[in-house]
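Work Package 4 report. The design task specified in the project plan requires that, given a folded chain encoded as structure tokens, an amino acid be chosen for each position. We show below one input record used in the internal validation round.
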């Protein structure tokens, strides 16, 4: 089963787009220090709304690695300084595999 964390941010100022990239890179570096963290991560930018970004963390094992979630919490707090943040956790109900 998969556990999904979604962090969405709408920047207060479009000029802070570079900050999102910097914070994501720092988060990625911290994750690399955690052996077997078990997370796939992605940084996405909204196609239509320039100041909307999304970070997705997918864990193949539920519950998610607590050390990763601690780092994610630090990332979320940093993002709140530059925009409105929405953080969701998703647990699977049904999964279809090909």
């Amino acid at each position: 089963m998969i556990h999904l964390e979604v962090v969405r941010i709408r920047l207060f100022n479009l000029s802070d787009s570079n900050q999102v990239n910097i914070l994501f890179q720092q988060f990625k570096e911290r994750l690399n220090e955690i052996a077997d963290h078990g997370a796939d991560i992605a940084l996405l930018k909204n196609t239509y709304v320039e100041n909307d970004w999304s970070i997705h963390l997918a864990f193949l094992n539920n519950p998610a690695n607590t050390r990763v979630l601690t780092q994610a919490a630090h990332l979320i707090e940093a993002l709140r300084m530059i925009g409105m943040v929405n953080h969701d956790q998703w647990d699977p109900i049904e999964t279809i595999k090909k």
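The two ends are 14 Å apart (CA to CA). Validation will be extended to a larger panel in the next phase.
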